[in-house]
Amino acid sequence: MYIPAKSLAIKYSALLAKQAAVYSQWVNHMTESGWIEFLKKQVKKDKNVLVGIGDDCAVVRLGREKFLLKSDLFIEGVHFKIGKTGFKDIGRRAIARVLSDFAAMAAKPKFIGVSLGKPAYVNTAALKMILAGILELGKKYNFSLVGGDTASSKKLFMDVWGVGTADKYVLRSGAKHGDYIFITGKLGERKFAQAFAPRIEEASYLAANFKINAMIDITDGFVLDLYRILQESKKGALLFKKSIPTTYGEADFYRGEDYELIFTVDRRERKLRELKKKFYCVGRIEDKSFGYKIDTGKKIEDLQVKGYTHF
Fold first, then answer.
1. Domains of the chain: which residue ranges?
2. By the 8 A CB rule, do 51 and 57 touch?
3. Residue 310 has what pLDDT?
């Protein structure tokens, strides 16, 4: 049967429009984790990209050297409020968030760049205070501020990027069955602190002295961030509720911005007693089929995976 070219073109255009509408709807309702998985599938990894999208930092190879790369946004109205957070603390916090991601992979920062969107109500004195906060951390953590960009904007925001190095970097994907799960500090303790200290020293100590299989920093809530280790490692976990240290109770399981480290340690680690004296052992890695559960002391329950998500 002969079908005119014009009819074929109309049918083809209608099909494309329908596919585009479905795709648009899917993208508009995509979660943050869904978007990351989508990006992984779309981006072809170069042979010199050792760790790409999905971990706390990317790891790239240039010649014989390996570098860790990280960028992070810090946006007024999303991460801080003008008047509630001092400008020096805005500078500190914007940088410390990136430093915390370096800590999550047992890396140290070397170079930091900052791009800044400046609204009209942020004056020169405020900009100098932001810079003072940045330089203060540069001196403390031994990194160089190497540049960036500025532009006018409706709200104050900072886009911070960094380059770091590590003797032995730690990924989210290395957790093993039987690993013990630790956190470096009490949950909720730093939630309302305007300026926090990224756990770079602790991460270096851990990587140098123990068999750390996986690690992540707590930015979006303990339960959600541990789940990211489980996803990347294809594992399950059992947590012991009484062993999890909190400041404000169970709500701390799900609050973001603790910036403590979650790490898993090989069950055959000979210096396990030393670790338990310094940090909190809160659970155990299980097979994926086990699921994600918590021992309440009375029964073992499934954990609801929730925390802070950006969209």
1. 49-165, 180-302
2. yes
3. 63
Residue with tokens 């960009």: 149
| CB-neighbour burial class of residue 232 (10 A; exposed 0-12, middle 13-18, buried 19+) | middle
Which residue matches tokens 């109770």? 249
Instruction: Tell me the β-bridge partners of 111.
Output: 144, 163
User: What are φ and ψ of residue 245, in 5° steps?
Assistant: -80, 130
Q: Sign of the CA dihedral 107, 287, 227, 55?
A: positive
Q: What is the pLDDT of residues 10-41, one digit of tens each?
A: 555 555 555 555 455 555 567 766 776 787 77
Check: CB of residue 104 under 8 Å from CB of residue 184: no
Query: Residue 144: which residues within 8 A CB-CB, separation 6 or more?
Result: 110, 111, 112, 138
Q: Is the whole model's pTM more than 0.70, yes or no? A: yes
Per CATH, the number for 49-165 is 3.30.1330.10
| pLDDT of the residue at 40 | 73
Q: In the chain, which stretches have pLDDT less than 70?
A: 1-29, 32-33, 36, 191-195, 308-311
Q: How far apart are CA 215 and CA 169, in angstroms?
A: 10
Fold of 180-302: Phosphoribosyl-aminoimidazole Synthetase; Chain A, domain 2 (3.90.650)
